[in-house]
Amino acid sequence: MKYYAGIDIGGTRIKMGIIDETGHVCVQENEATQSTRSDLMKQIGDFIKQHQEYTMEGVGISMPGIAKDDGFMQTSGAIKCFLKHNMKQEMEAYLKLPVVIENDSKSASIAEKWIGEAKDLDNFVCLTLGTAVGGAIYMDGKLVRGLGGMAGEFGIALCGKEKGNYNEQSFSYSAAVVAGLCRNYSYRVKERVLDAKEIYRRAHENDQDAIACIEQFYHDVALLLINTAVIIAPDAILIGGGISANEEAMHGIISAYEEIIQDYHVLSLVEMPKILACKLKNEAGMIGAARKLMLMKEKI
């Protein structure tokens, strides 16, 4: 059996796992993400050293941002210490192991295609709704990376028509959980609320502001789904991120999507993609990063 380190770096937490060649997570740890390059590399290196009973074939790293094929981080989200750095080269030099770098949403889609909800799909889109909106596109069974790895970055697509203030007109500022739902509710009630669960709790207690913001969130996500559907026309759109485990939220999003389809005459006449929740949840990034390394080594 071959083993791979799968590392999923988030802005606040880092998930580190040992993945075998079947996709089974043998070991996993969840820690606070270190903020400097040296500390972050040491954190990953220490994890690998602590599990030397597994002979590692290499390290797959999933993280926010737009990564070029050679591992250069054009953007890096909350992991600012690697912005404009070649993370692959630096990690390989430090860890003395083969390393691949992939965007977190693309990693999740790789995992879902391998052993998740999309294993029988050749054409699908994966949308992750979290702090921002991420995404990935599979066509003809292959991940589409596009120019510089930017394909599928739906969160930076614009949904407004005003000139200027483009950040606030991006889909991340409307359809994301934190930058969208939580930000909009916080502005509305003039209170910093960054936990969507708290907004849902208040909605269940008949907080009208919470109810209105959640309904707007469903509509905004549905608009993103519609745009994705008509531009790419996949067989299915998978929704990932913590919100995908919330059955109430998934029902609300799908209902808003179906309502637009019925109200928009031309869409009511054509076959539209089905909406599915991702299967692998919080392990998807680790598994997908490890799987990308497996595929890379198979080509060598």
Describe this structure in words.
With 300 residues, this protein is α/β, with parallel strands linked by helices. It folds into 2 domains: 3-104 and 282-299, ATPase, nucleotide binding domain (Nucleotidyltransferase, domain 5, 2-Layer Sandwich), CATH 3.30.420; 117-278, 2-Layer Sandwich (Nucleotidyltransferase, domain 5), CATH 3.30.420.40. 41% of the residues lie in helices and 20% in strands. The chain has helices spanning 37-50, 87-95, 104-115, 172-175, 177-189, 196-204, 208-232, 247-263, 265-268, 284-299, and strands at 3-9, 13-20, 25-32, 56-63, 99-103, 124-129, 133-139, 142-144, 236-240, 274-277. Strands 3-2-1-4-5 form a 5-stranded mixed sheet, with helices on both faces. Helix 3 packs across helix 10 (284-299) and helix 6 (196-204) packs across helix 7 (208-232). The protein is globular and about 55 Å long.
The overall number of domains is 2
Structural class: alpha/beta
The CATH topology name of the largest domain reads Nucleotidyltransferase, domain 5
pLDDT averaged over residues: 96
* Poorly predicted tracts of residues: none
**CATH superfamily caption of the largest domain:** ATPase, nucleotide binding domain
Order of strands across the main sheet: 3-2-1-4-5
For the sheet with most strands, the description reads: 5 strands, mixed
Which descriptor suits the 3D outline?
globular
CATH architectural label of the largest domain: 2-Layer Sandwich
- CATH class of the largest domain reads Alpha Beta
Percent range of helical residues:
40-55%
Order of helices and strands: EEEHEHEHEEEHHHHEHHEH
Percent strand: 15-25%
- Integer-rounded radius of gyration: 19 Å
The quaternary structure here is: single chain
Q: List the total number of helices.
A: 10
Family: Belongs to the ROK (NagC/XylR) family.
Organism: Amedibacillus hominis
Protein name: ROK family protein
